[in-house]
Amino acid sequence: MPTILGQNQYGKAGVRVVRVIREGAVHHIKDLTVSVTLAGEFDEAHYSGSNSGLLPTDTTKNTVYAFAKERGIASAEEFGIELARHFVTSQPAVHRAGIRIEEHGWSRVENSPGDGGTGHSFVRTGRETRVSRIGYDGERWQVVSGLDGLTVLNSTDSEFSGYVKDRYTTLQEAYDRILATDVRARWRYSWASDATRAPDWDTSYGQARANLLRAFAETYSLSLQQTLYRMGASVIEGDGELDEIRLSLPNNHHFLVDLAPFGLTNDHEVYLAADRPHGLIEATVLRDGAPSLIPPGPGAV
Amino acid sequence: MPTILGQNQYGKAGVRVVRVIREGAVHHIKDLTVSVTLAGEFDEAHYSGSNSGLLPTDTTKNTVYAFAKERGIASAEEFGIELARHFVTSQPAVHRAGIRIEEHGWSRVENSPGDGGTGHSFVRTGRETRVSRIGYDGERWQVVSGLDGLTVLNSTDSEFSGYVKDRYTTLQEAYDRILATDVRARWRYSWASDATRAPDWDTSYGQARANLLRAFAETYSLSLQQTLYRMGASVIEGDGELDEIRLSLPNNHHFLVDLAPFGLTNDHEVYLAADRPHGLIEATVLRDGAPSLIPPGPGAV
Amino acid sequence: MPTILGQNQYGKAGVRVVRVIREGAVHHIKDLTVSVTLAGEFDEAHYSGSNSGLLPTDTTKNTVYAFAKERGIASAEEFGIELARHFVTSQPAVHRAGIRIEEHGWSRVENSPGDGGTGHSFVRTGRETRVSRIGYDGERWQVVSGLDGLTVLNSTDSEFSGYVKDRYTTLQEAYDRILATDVRARWRYSWASDATRAPDWDTSYGQARANLLRAFAETYSLSLQQTLYRMGASVIEGDGELDEIRLSLPNNHHFLVDLAPFGLTNDHEVYLAADRPHGLIEATVLRDGAPSLIPPGPGAV
Amino acid sequence: MPTILGQNQYGKAGVRVVRVIREGAVHHIKDLTVSVTLAGEFDEAHYSGSNSGLLPTDTTKNTVYAFAKERGIASAEEFGIELARHFVTSQPAVHRAGIRIEEHGWSRVENSPGDGGTGHSFVRTGRETRVSRIGYDGERWQVVSGLDGLTVLNSTDSEFSGYVKDRYTTLQEAYDRILATDVRARWRYSWASDATRAPDWDTSYGQARANLLRAFAETYSLSLQQTLYRMGASVIEGDGELDEIRLSLPNNHHFLVDLAPFGLTNDHEVYLAADRPHGLIEATVLRDGAPSLIPPGPGAV
Predict the structure, then answer these.
(1) Using a CB-CB distance cutoff of 8 angstroms, which residues of chain D are in contact with residue A215?
(2) Interchain CB distance below 8 Å, C170 and A275
(3) Which letter does DSSP use for residue C267 in this model?
(4) Interface contacts B/C by beta carbons within 8 Å
(5) According to a count of CB atoms within 10 Å of the terminal CB, is the N or C end of chain D lower?
(6) Which residues of A are known catalytic residues?
(7) Stretch A120-145: mean pLDDT, rounded?
(8) Do B91 and C166 touch (CB under 8 A)?
(9) In the predicted model, what is the mean pLDDT of residues C277-301?
(10) How far is A134 from chain D (nearest CA, A)?
């Protein structure tokens, strides 16, 4: 046989679940998009179409809804851990499960009806999406959490100079520019075993987000690489349960518009916010001695 | 000649401008996407390709940047008024100008460097986009402002019953359901002449947004139509300078998941958030006696 | 009462239906996204939440699927006519129905199994989407069909010169440029009554698409307005059953890259394809004497 | 120092270049979106903000345009090879370069002006995007090409049965269902050295696409996994220069609509095309003995 099967997996993507908890007139909601991925002994499904041993993806979807009822959703991470454990321990053919979750944030509408100013009315909040990916092989856990789409901008305290100039370089050095990016972050917890206590996932998320913002704001930037490193280091240094963070930062260029043709000066006042092309800076920051386990992604060189 | 030219217009869409104001170490930013549309005596551009009288769209783009410097951006509406006036009064062939603006909201990063806890670091905030459309024909103004993408959800206090049942009806009546929508609102100001004082645009926007949220939260809903009407009426009643509002509300269905096959009850706890299809409710609410001038859109029956 | 209800409508958007016809081993498919909009006596749904007289949007969805079986889908237009007629004639409160349809094109996979080289395997084809909107008030029909996203480019035979220069003009005149756009077209049929024979919708669509392409290709363009007019006129002139066409053409700018800093000349060889901002040219072309009934859209000045 | 830098890279994403070749009145165009990624000795840019050794991303953008002129674009792969070689060999700090290219397809408008029925008018064609990623470390090449968004559907010859049933399984076995997917494929060439002749990239692409379509159409499918394997194997078997292919196939569910409530039977005629959730099947197919080098992506379990 000239060809063979390599790495393979299957599952259900994009299961939308909203869980409501009612405490009298005060409600709480969790709004998740869940994806389930299973890997194991599925060679025959590929070679001969035999589905024995294969749990339907429709069943994995049903399980998400049933677990939302039976186990509740304390946090995205805890919900993912329950699901991953279930698939690996209940299905002999499944050797490894991965649960990816996006959590959509909601705030309570202020002054809405109900006890003490709270109630049952909510408005979507924040532009970023909280994400998590939980992996389990029956023995060890790997939890990588993070966020997508946290858009930030510094209107000063950013330079870019001292770089290489070759035949194709036309860029002018900049000593006061706008620095803007959409933060994509993934941080990995060292927690890996049921024998040790799991992190407080929500507290950890809040700390990481705050540290990303603070490091971005407080770094006088000589390059986006430098800002990236400080952002990553601040997250690792701020939470002893994290070993590694991967940051992917587009450089959302803001070009100073040339107003001279109109007889006007532009003293860092009017900028063109460009779409494409954009810079793209990606790096992993590690706790010294920790392994690098977050894949850099298919785009890595 | 068997064919003739009908209504026509031209312009530039998607001009991205960021304006920075520096008060010492404390900066302020405005981030807009501006589109310019011009109409007037442009028949010959269509019939013969004669461009005499036609201001290039590239020039309208330049004007946006130059005005951001020369006039500043006090609010989206005031900026649009300056631009529309300029094109109509300076170009003989332009009889009518329309300026559409999307304003992208930024919050200051808390505890960032600078005087008094403020500074130069910003994070994009809110999921909705503030929009405005300013029209001017040399005599009268028409300002229609609003918002897109304000996503809200009530986890109770919504029913749907008493409707018509025909041969194709299978829907069960619901006495306690989730009601969720993405508010698209457009409100029209009665202000139309330079002879009278213009509204305080920012205050008006804040009031309208708050009234939309409050009416959504406080209405015990028998139909999304009823909620829509109360939302619209609350905006008109809350601001004497508004004459008309158009609301377009998708009904973002949340279906109670049937957990009975798994031996579980689902007492309004676990919902499937559906994408498509969705309901779509659209209506205009008018101050009694005011004309209806906001077009219902090409989708109107 | 200080506020009143204005124009209103409701319905279901985004109903996805695929219809398969089996002729032995040779299958045929139609793939549509259907939206239903109803208007009529629905004031009380808004004022008091009374749903008597209101057909649920869920029922309109069911009707789409049932009609796909009962009536089949000869063409998007014929299917929409069946649906619109049904809602207006069967529901007393419905005075007007609008059916919007997007048709997704599929080609047969060549050399696939089945009789005579055809079979049951299909690949999505074309980048444009065929669209139609059917309106009915119980007496008269209005059918507006068209397409979205037909992307075309001429690599020469386009100029832009002779325009107005003001203080803000920096654009250089161009005597040989790329002209590129994404055609959005809506054409209106004069057919309005069951007493006369309806057009052959599929033939008409094919002619209109071919005429748009040919006029774009064959026009030596002095402005995109001129090209637009010729495209519109060619569609009206080519089909006696059409009275009006509305075209919305973004000017997808392709800028000649300045290679002089690298010691290279750029003789109309290397272009930067820009995203934003883009020009936007919109106009209606009418058969002489016909009324203009296609709304120019909310963006019109 | 508690944290250290891990894998890192930087570059420019989304460079849009259109190259026109004029053969008299007959023109040819190439339309690419190019991204450049560089890795090497850039630790100090992260640690201290020192940019010495760092080529600006703006320069990489300029290089794309200059090379489009100087070297031309024979194919996406050849263009990427030229670029990667340039960055690695001309910049001492760059140890590895990756060039990702999306190629946007255009067809000639039939019967357009010019010699022999060809000319200068083009229409975007096909829904899929051809992609390639070229990696170079100064010694060895790795070329992974493929496509995104090839949407296919079989209206019969697909079953799904014989799977595991657990407490959460409600899916009914299906013996005649629609099978539909959006093919995402990445195939790796064994070519790695300048000492051997490179593949004919365009011919190879056409073969791979045709083989994917044929295997999808001709496989009587017992599972999407089986179809995937046959598609992958057909590409590897059909081109001796390919060692590995990674396929990612969403299962675009088409549900048979229950028409029984309306007194209608549905004999595999009317389907609901669902958006979310969808199945997702991913696997690598290898030439026996070849290494697996295409990363399965961050979503892999």
Answers:
(1) none
(2) no
(3) S
(4) 320
(5) N
(6) 12, 57, 253
(7) 96
(8) yes
(9) 91
(10) 9
Q: Nearest-CA residue of chain A relative to B25?
A: A156
3-state secondary structure of B291: coil
In chain B, which residue's Cα lies nearest the Cα of C243?
B3
Distance from CA of C251 to the nearest CA of D (A): 15
Cis peptide before C277 (omega within 30 of 0): yes
For residue A18, give the nearest of B113, B216, B273 by CB distance. Answer: B273
* Cβ atoms of residues D224 and D181 within 8 Å: yes
Strands D129-136 and B106-108, bridge-based pairing: unpaired
- Report domain B146-295's class: alpha beta
φ/ψ (deg, to 5) at C54:
-95, 120
**Do D223 and A49 lie within an 8 Å CB cutoff?**
yes
Percentage of residues in chain D with pLDDT exceeding 90? 93
Question: In chain C, whose CA is at the least distance from the CA of A167?
Answer: C262
Verdict on whether the full-model pTM lies above 0.90: yes
Do the domains at C9-138 and C140-301 have one common CATH topology?
Answer: yes
Q: Where on the phi/psi map is residue B208: left (φ > 0), alpha (ψ -120 to 50), or beta?
A: alpha
Contact B36, B87 (CB under 8 A): yes
Q: What is the pLDDT, as a whole number, of residue B300?
A: 74
The alpha-carbon gap from B275 to the nearest alpha carbon of chain D, in Å, equals: 7
Nearest beta carbon to residue B121 from set A217, A266, A271 = A217
Complex-level ipTM: 0.95
- The residue extents of the domains of chain B are 9-139, 146-295
The CATH class given to the A9-139 domain equals alpha beta
Q: Is D162 helix (H, G, I), strand (E, B) or coil?
A: coil
Cα–Cα distance for residue pair B148/D169, rounded to 1 Å: 40
b/e code B173-184 from CB counts within 10 Å (16+ = b): eeeebbbbbbbb
Give the residue from B165, B255, B262 with the most D CB atoms within 10 Å of its CB, the best one to mutate.
B262
pLDDT > 70: what percent of chain A? Answer: 96
Q: Which helix (H) or strand (E) holds A252?
A: none
Which of B105-114, B186-195, D96-105, D149-158 shows the lowest mean pLDDT across its residues? Answer: B105-114
Question: Taking the alpha carbons of A85, A86, A88, A90 in that order, is the dihedral positive or negative?
Answer: positive
Q: How confident is the model at residue C70 (pLDDT cuts 50, 70, 90)?
A: very high
Task: Return d(Cα A41, Cα A28) in angstroms, integer.
Answer: 40
Chains with ≥3 Cβ pairs under 8 A against A?
B, C, D
Question: Which run of H or of E encompasses C159?
Answer: none
Give A196-211 pLDDT, tens digit per residue. 999 999 999 999 999 9
Catalytic (active site) residue C12: yes
Q: Looking at beta carbons, which residues of chain D come within 8 Å of B167?
A: 262
Determine the Cα–Cα distance for residues B51 and B54; give it in Å rounded to an integer: 5
Tell me the Cα Rg of chain B. Answer: 23
How high does pLDDT run on average in chain A? 95
DSSP-derived pairing of the beta strands D270-273 and D278-287: unpaired
> CATH number of the domain at A147-301, out of 2.60.120.590, 3.60.9.10, 3.30.1330.40, 3.10.270.10?
3.10.270.10
The single residue of C12, C30, C61, C86 carrying the catalytic annotation is: C12
pLDDT of residue A118: 56
Distance CA(B122)–CA(B111), nearest Å, equals 11
**pLDDT 10s digits, D61-88:** 999 999 999 999 999 999 999 999 999 9
Question: Among this protein's residues, is D30 annotated catalytic?
Answer: no
Domain C9-138 top-level CATH class = alpha beta
A-D contacts (CB, under 8 Å): 321
Fold of the domain built from segment(s) D140-301: Urate Oxidase (3.10.270)
Count CA atoms closer than 13 A to C48's CA, side-chain side. Answer: 5
C116 vs chain B: nearest CA distance in angstroms? Answer: 38
Evaluate whether C25 touches C74 at the Cβ level (below 8 Å): no
DSSP letter assigned to residue D290: -
User: Which pair of tokens denotes residue D164?
Assistant: 């595991």
